[in-house]
Design brief:
heterodimer; A: 129 residues; mainly alpha; 2 domains; elongated; B: 269 residues; nucleus (chain B); Protein ASYMMETRIC LEAVES 2 (chain B); LOB (chain B); developmental protein (chain B)
Chain lengths: 129, 269
């Protein structure tokens, strides 16, 4: 994870000695300084440390990555952050669901028409019945 | 004058003086009452957001005096203590202050509400937070897209079968080809020919798919391009795939419930 002498990105940013038991070291490599800088700007190092201590060790990498994602989203969009993406996705879900409901209604209509008489003209061509 | 008359006039004079003094006292009391009322009006007009005695939720939490110019007061009312508690726990009061100071005043309410939502999601799911919700929504969106594609393919198949039935034979004549084109144009023009869905009724689709290849491509383009039109798709894709295995855990959190507070439309202008 870390070269023997190279401090992690967090300790470099905080200008402190990177100990062997540094909680940030496995997740903030020195070649990704922006990752910690963003997370520190939005959440703060102490809050991140608390969150990491609350989760199990095998979950910490995912936790750090999701925090980094949220921090980057908040820096790009200071008003809505990643909540903006959630809003967009929800609206698209609603739109697609409506479209699917309409298509299913058409399918039911066609299937009943075919069930009653397979050789009938489509109802919008001729009104035979 | 007689003594009795003098005494009588003295008594009357005393009564008159007492009456005047009483009147003066009443006037003084009225004045003091007016002054007190005026003072109260000045204090309430100076602090329109906070009631005269109730600190905002932030100052209550931080155990400090809520000043009239408190930056948190408009957004953290005292009847919602949990909102500030969550935000403080995840982001910290100083970070929230810096964030709010970087924004225009009319944007701050939305910013606070989105921070409160993120904080709540992070507390519910300390590992993934809002990213879990995004991942879940993307999965649902992909599922819906597939379902819609299959439904439209099926619908197109029904339409083709009914049209073929009206011609009386399986092969398409030139006149019936024109009729098919007209028929599809009067219907929903985004109908998909299900030539690729399965191998059934292949001889129908073999003739039909060559008439509507552009429509089919348009559908696919809409599915792929619709998601990220207003958002950075690279940002959405970042690290989301790692969380795909955690859907079972995340599905306990309702996406609708998380977005309920923030259903205001996102203005991406």
């Amino acid at each position: 994870m870390m070269a023997s002498n190279s401090p992690c990105a967090a300790c470099k940013f905080l200008r402190r000695k990177c100990n062997q038991d540094c909680i940030f070291a496995p997740y903030f490599p020195p070649e990704e300084p922006h990752k910690f800088a963003n997370v520190h700007k939005i959440f703060g190092a102490s809050n991140v440390s608390k969150i990491l201590n609350e989760v199990l060790p095998h979950q910490r990498e995912d936790a750090v990555n999701s925090l980094a994602y949220e921090a980057e989203a908040r820096i790009k969009d200071p008003v809505y952050g990643c909540v903006g993406a959630i809003s967009v996705l929800q609206r698209q879900l609603i739109r697609l669901q409506k479209e699917l409901d309409a298509t299913n209604a058409d399918l039911i209509r066609f299937s009943t028409n075919q069930g009653s008489s397979f050789f009938n003209y489509p109802s919008n061509w001729n009104n035979d019945s | 004058m007689h003594i009795t008359e003098i005494n009588g006039s003295l008594r009357e004079r005393k009564k008159r003086e007492e009456k005047e003094e009483n009147k003066k006292e009443e006037r003084r009391k009225k004045k003091t009452r007016k002054k007190k009322e005026e003072k109260k009006c000045v204090t309430t007009t100076q602090t329109p957001m906070a009631s005269s005695n109730s600190p905002c939720a932030a100052c209550k939490f931080l155990r400090r005096k809520c000043q009239p110019e408190c930056a948190f007061a408009p957004y953290f009312p005292p009847d919602q203590p949990q909102k500030f508690a969550n935000v403080h726990r995840i982001f910290g009061a100083s970070n929230v202050t810096k964030l709010l100071n970087d924004l225009h005043p009319h944007q701050r309410e939305d910013a606070v509400n989105s921070l409160a939502y993120e904080a709540e999601m992070r507390l519910r799911d300390p590992v993934y937070g809002c990213v879990g919700v995004i991942s879940l929504l993307q999965h649902q969106l992909r599922q819906l897209q597939m379902d819609l594609y299959c439904a439209k393919s099926e619908l197109s198949r029904y339409q083709n079968l009914s049209i073929a039935a009206t011609t009386g034979h399986g092969l398409m004549t030139n006149e019936s080809v024109a009729a098919v084109n007209n028929y599809h144009h009067t219907q929903n023009t985004t109908a998909v020919v299900g030539g690729n869905s399965n191998g059934r009724d292949h001889h129908y689709h073999h003739r039909h798919h060559q008439f509507f290849p552009n429509q089919q491509n348009n559908i696919v383009r809409n599915f792929d391009g619709g998601i990220g039109n207003n958002y950075d798709t690279s940002l959405l894709a970042m690290n989301i795939s790692a969380s795909l295995g955690q859907f079972n855990q995340v599905q306990h959190h309702s996406a609708a419930g998380g977005g309920g507070e923030d259903r205001r439309t996102v203005n991406r202008s």
